[in-house]
Fold this protein.
Amino acid sequence: MSYKDKDLIKVVSGLRRSGKSTLFELYRWKQSRIIIQNICSQQMDLRKIEAE
């Protein structure tokens, strides 16, 4: 994930049915988990502010 938000294009190529789509789905899943974690941490920060 160190290449996120960089001006870099990665190309995944391979034979048919070699897992290219699965690799892409795993990448999308990991990105969505990172976004969800960021949202949850922001919500927790807001709760701390409201409690003070």
